[in-house]
Amino acid sequence: MSFSDVIKKSVLEGFTQSDIGTVTIVVTLGVTGLIALYIYAIYRLASRSAFYNRDFNKTLALMPIVTAGIVLAMQSSIVISLGMVGALSIVRFRNAVKDSMDLLYLFWSIGVGIICGARLFEIAVVVSLAVTALIFLLDLVPAAKPPYLLVINSTDAEIDMALNQLLNRYAKGARIKSRNVSKHGVDLILELRTDDGGRLVSACAALPGVESVNLLAHDGEVRY
């Protein structure tokens, strides 16, 4: 018997020895469904302060069951496993992921389906608990306060000296991000940090020639 025959025999025996009965299928999909509902609840709970996508959450709950079913089918026959590989290789997903945390939930959901399909339920439970703990623990880490954007529209193009005095009093780390000068005056956009935005806006509005003042905050990326 050649080496290739030995490999072929061991592979075929590995598939023929896998006995997947009705009880195994029901237990596997049942445990997978319970963990999928757990992922559904965690995503719903963690998304209270952010944008919540109900359809995406339902997808997270259904994906582990489908994935576990595929893994069970691949264990039963080498023909089915090769067919699954060929079919899944031509699938293209075009939906853009808007939030990076959604990638975590997608991989978590798919990973649980694969692990449960292999009937390693303890690993799936431990991984799910570890991911949940890290999600909520990392939310407790204090984030840096994002800077403000101060937008000033003034008819006085020589407003810099008076404005700098106010910035030294009410703000810190002020930097000019944009300066637009025209015959009607100047438009300034400054990035700064302040703990007294109300007084800063009032003081800037009281400067001669200032027509409008806007102080903008954002919840986006923070530069440390």
Automatic annotation (TrEMBL):
Keywords (A to Z) from UniProt: Membrane, Transmembrane, Transmembrane helix
Residues spanning the membrane: 20-40, 60-85, 105-138
The protein's name: DUF4956 domain-containing protein
Organism, scientific name: Candidatus Allofournierella pullicola
Taxonomic path: Bacteria, Bacillati, Bacillota, Clostridia, Eubacteriales
